[in-house]
Amino acid sequence: xxxxxxxxxxxxxxxxxxxxxxxxxxxxxxxxxxxxxxxxxxxxxxxxxxxxxxxxxxxxxxxxxxxxxxxxxxxxxxxxxxxxxxxxxxxxxxxxxxxxxxxxxxxxxxxxxxxxxxxxxxxxxxxxxxxxxxxxxxxxxxxxxxxxxxxxxxxxxxxxxxxxxxxxxxxxxxxxxxxxxxxxxxxxxxxxxxxxxxxxxxxxxxxxxxxxxxxxxxxxxxxxxxxxxxxxxxxxxxxxxxxxxxxxxxxxxxxxxxxxxxxxxxxxxxxxxxxxxxxxxxxxxxxxxxxxxxxxxxxxxxxxxxxxxxxxxxxxxxxxxxxxxxxxxxxxxxxxxxxxxxxxxxxxxxxxxxxxxxxxxxxxxxxxxxxxxxxxxxxxxxxxxxxxxxxxxxxxxxxxxxxxxxxxxxxxxxxxxxxxxxxxxxxxxxxxxxxxxxxxxx
Length: 442
Ligand SMILES: Cc1ncc(COP(=O)(O)O)c(C=O)c1O
Hints:
Helices cover 40% and strands 14% of the residues. It is of the alpha/beta class. The protein has 2 domains: 2-60 and 338-441, Aspartate Aminotransferase, domain 1 (Alpha-Beta Complex); 65-331, 3-Layer(aba) Sandwich (Aspartate Aminotransferase, domain 2). Helix 8 links the parallel strand 5 (187-193) and strand 6. The protein is globular, with a radius of gyration of 22 Å. The two termini are 14 Å apart. Bound molecules: pyridoxal-5'-phosphate (PLP).
């Protein structure tokens, strides 16, 4: 914006302007998250001003000690020199199966519970099998807004995808919208995250039922990305074996793959381990078209001995023991992992209020009739500005975040804020910066 240089902004405007120019980015709002991280690092270095950094979804809490110890013990026992089994070590498979029973109330055989190198690899492997199982079904449907890297994976693979922003199709409206895609017959897979990155919407039971019923009707596989497992803090999802449970499409169709990340719920992002859970029904199904790429037509077999084998020959041996130890503690009721990450919800509640009090608006704000949960992310806008303008302008006020434009959202005014890096001690700074911003723009 032209006149930031004549106003006193919280961060030296001439430095911000220079760095923006030097970055070579045509529009900073269209930069990838990592490009933005680099730019803000540079501004911080030159001005000595610490930003309110909300651009990157990294855990801001330490991992559970039981996981670290599990991993250290495994290393001491010598696992580092041994290749792990591709399908995962027995003790982890058992705990994953217990975990989905305890926290989702669904039954999946241990055999069908597989560790992956983060959910990121779980998604990549799932695409390799799910999107190639039927020659006529060559397109993935993303229920957006979504995590941009999964679309990048599609591009890397040369796979086709379609997408729509679910904002205007909540509740019963979702059925007709989904059917308009599925009835064409080319959709192999539906993917969404729940709770959703970036909007933090959570599908209602009605919506999950619609998705599940249609997946069965059109024989489409649902990849349910549970990267923020049990983090809908409106419900107490923390008690093993006690309702309520993490909501899931698994209650409504047998055509599912669950991708459960350990990165956020267990603050274990650095160890790159996630869980892929394939329904008993799907794991055992045969798809003749898989033989074009894999040795067999078995879905589960192709996933393990085709996709995961060729990607990385399994998942880090010691990390499997670390995750197994955390899951065991959670399953036994000895580790309340939900209580630990609730801090994100508390922060979001306070931060959202600071934004609203200073003229900002929340973009995705409802799950049908219920106000959105407070969690890892929230979305905001400022009247009269589109998100690219707003994102750039906020940099002068020491605030960084990402635009929803890169996430498949149609809400071109929206910005995603991630609360994980904003410790409570920064709230005063945030409040002051938002106040100055509002004074300068209202
Ligand atoms: C929706 C979503 N899916 C998947 C991932 C990746 O998870 P992982 O760290 O387990 O690879 C993330 C991480 O931010 C995410 O937000």
